[in-house]
Amino acid sequence: MQVLQVQLEIRPDPAEVGRARRWARSRLAGSGIEADEPLAETLILLVSELVTNAVVHTGRPAVLRLSLPSLVTGPTAGERAVAEAVATVRLEVLDASARPPRPRCAEGDETNGRGLALVDGLADRWGWSSEGAGKRIWCEVDRCSATAVAAVACDSAPAAVTCDSAPAAYEDLAFEVV
Predict the structure, then answer these.
(1) What secondary structure does DSSP assign to 81-146, as a single string?
(2) Single pTM value for the model
(3) What are the strands of the beta sheet with 125-131, ordered from one edge?
């Protein structure tokens, strides 16, 4: 499997969040992830949350990077099905602020403070690391296509693959990925 990596420079302007969503949606469609797939909507929400955090909390330019799986023909149908079933989309936002992300728990009608809780609930994995004078916040979502899972379930692939939506915990809150 090959991975296509694309990136977009983000200005420190809240209007950039909408531009980042449109850009990401077009790149997803170009990689075979259709707009009506639940995966596309999940990834667009993750883009929105991470870019918003970078723009609002740092006030500095950032870079949005998507790593998209690009399937190539494998030796057997089973190997292709397994590769498709476990394909992962990675989203990264690099900014120039060394301040680490700080998860918060919003209360009641507060309009801020839920972004990292959403990322934790929607992504299969996420984290952050220092990157030069700034940081990289990343998340990954596994793409589990129905055709790949069906092929694996029908023993036309060499190994079993499951795509469960296990609940993810965020402090004392739980989110079920649906």
Answers:
(1) HHHHHTEEEEEEEEES--SPP------TT-SSS-HHHHHHHH-SEEEEEEETTEEEEEEEEEE--H
(2) 0.73
(3) 2-10, 62-70, 87-95, 134-143, 125-131
Residues 65, 7 contacting (CB under 8 angstroms): yes
The total of other beta-carbon atoms located within 10 Å of residue 1's CB is 15
- Please say whether the beta carbons of 77 and 141 come within 8 A: no
- The pLDDT tens digits for 87-136 are 899 999 999 999 988 777 767 776 676 788 889 999 999 999 999 999 99
Q: Which helix (H) or strand (E) holds 11?
A: none
> 26-79: per-residue pLDDT in tens?
999 988 888 888 999 999 999 999 999 999 889 999 999 999 987 544 445 555
* 94, 65 Cβ separation under 8 angstroms: yes
Residues constituting the chain:
178
CA distances from 69 to 40, 103, 146 (A): 13, 29, 16
CA 62 to chain centre: 17
